[in-house]
């Protein structure tokens, strides 16, 4: 890649403007580093001292691995705000993974902008196409560069000791010197490239995996085809086509051509397999789309966002179309807008009666049209909290119709009076409006139009505004008519399949507690939405699991707030192609069955399972304390989230001063009563006896997606982004109890 013209230009460096707002535009010097993995840019900053003002150079670093995408032109709110000042062919935006803000840039010329746009896209593609071994080599190279303080391409022993602290390793000096001397083949007193790789391999020797390898190896040197088949059957519990699968693993992961010819696997190949997606705890067959997508819409859990326009808190937070882009790109299928009368007849979106900033409704609709189906082809529900006058409601309807065109569903699919909700498959590529509607779907189909509705235009309980509804906006609502909830008995007699009720989290919990099985039945017939309490002004989240236990489909969370609640949401929707729809268990879809989440053992087909997790070891856990010399004391907690009877958590002991390769060999046992609803969350924390433990990393997945046997768990950051090569090594067993 070093010879690429665009990258050559990036190596030389470019002066560009970094834009934060219409008034904040500063020149910065940007340059791609030789590793093709980092971009640094520097600025001059003035700092007042007691007698004078000093100027210092500040260098900031952008890791290419953190960049999710590059947008060309005026494709951010910041760049749109300066569109009259800089042409679009000089502007571009770096969009980062997780919840980190964008970096908006303006180049001096269109040619320079194109070099950076194309160059960064090439670097992203190259990184995404890297194999495991290449990624590991890159990671080793990164550490070498961090430790090589004087940049002479060599590392002396002092630099190696500093490196060990950076890598979360607390090793006594004698042992570190022994490894250093063994790796220093040239006896120069320093380590060069190849010698450092040898040092790293000695440092990361996986005794835990070697023990498993030797247990199944006939000669202690390799796994014959039969050895590998025995391992796959006895430990990984593979049953069908084991020989073909074993041959496929050898072909895919074995680095030695000689071993491949012998149909054998060396230790390096075995470790590569266990570190791959096939050796992951998450069953790769469930990562892609695998569920039936032809059931009625109410038979699915739907990834849903609350007050999607907010990037921060609910009182003074910033409103932005970026909130919609981020949620939709994460597979969210139900987004929300709070609409109010705006200036010059244009409806605006913000959290009413607060100090949150405002954006135009038409800009939200434009973003929806552009991003709705990038992550998933399945339908998006636009949940409207409508506080607008009839005049501006007409403008809303006009924007929806003109901007979305055929994507907006404005009539039943087959043109006939429907008898039930369509499926996600039927609604592919469609945007559905959820809101108040004049009359019923049947009336509209028969040409009967009621007078404009005088009633609650907003269905959230903390806003009881009463106003008239425009026919134009009402006509945009088809399968998601918002109605007030009276009681389960009333709904059973009077409700229509296309009606949807919204519940605050506290009301939903009350219904679950008092009439759990009725709530499950209600949700087998029609949609329900649950949203956070108005008291959550900090944009915190409630536990979505409680609502999924009752079959509630649209459980709206504040996507901008990281934490266990969003980990659970990401975990549930990480299966089935990340499409934003998860088919509910059969006992939650069948109106003939009675399932009470509070008493799950009473249901038909009750088959509890035992889950045994041996937490064996951890690898290259990230530092959480930037204080020099600090090393973590890691522990692992395994949490079960599901029906109340399944809620449980257990911890390993903590390991003193070792975040690099801690070993536990601790076994944790759980009973799972409703495996179809359970999520398992693995959390690593830095133990602190005097204060709250610090978060290190986590991974959450549905219980039904767990692969048994020896597995690696690839950890995620608090933001849900990967932190390679940080992982846990575990052994999992699932057995029937009845």
UniProtKB/TrEMBL annotation:
Membrane topology: Peripheral membrane protein
Assigned GO CC terms: endoplasmic reticulum; nucleus; plasma membrane
Entry binding sites for Ca(2+) 5: 686-688
SUPFAM superfamilies hit by this protein: C2 domain (Calcium/lipid-binding domain, CaLB), EF-hand, PH domain-like, PLC-like phosphodiesterases
The EC number(s) this enzyme carries: 3.1.4.11
Glycosylation site positions: 186
GO biological process, one term: intracellular signal transduction
Binding annotation for Ca(2+) 4: 631, 633, 657
Catalytic residues of the enzyme: 306, 351
Cofactors (names): Ca(2+)
Limits of the PH domain: 8-125
One of the record's GO molecular function terms: phosphatidylinositol-4,5-bisphosphate phospholipase C activity
Catalytic activity: a 1,2-diacyl-sn-glycero-3-phospho-(1D-myo-inositol-4,5-bisphosphate) + H2O = 1D-myo-inositol 1,4,5-trisphosphate + a 1,2-diacyl-sn-glycerol + H(+); a 1,2-diacyl-sn-glycero-3-phospho-(1D-myo-inositol) + H2O = 1D-myo-inositol 1-phosphate + a 1,2-diacyl-sn-glycerol + H(+)
Entries under InterPro entries matching the protein: C2_dom, C2_domain_sf, EF-hand-dom_pair, EF_Hand_1_Ca_BS, EF_hand_dom, PH-like_dom_sf, PH_domain, PI-PLC_fam
Record-linked CDD domains: C2_PLC_like, PH_PLC_delta, PI-PLCc_delta
Localisation per UniProt entry: Cytoplasm; Endoplasmic reticulum; Membrane; Nucleus
Co-factor binding comment: Binds 3 Ca(2+) ions per subunit. Two of the Ca(2+) ions are bound to the C2 domain.
All copies of domain EF-hand, residue ranges: 135-170, 171-206
Ranges for domain C2: 591-717
Domain PI-PLC Y-box: 473-589
The protein's name: Phosphoinositide phospholipase C
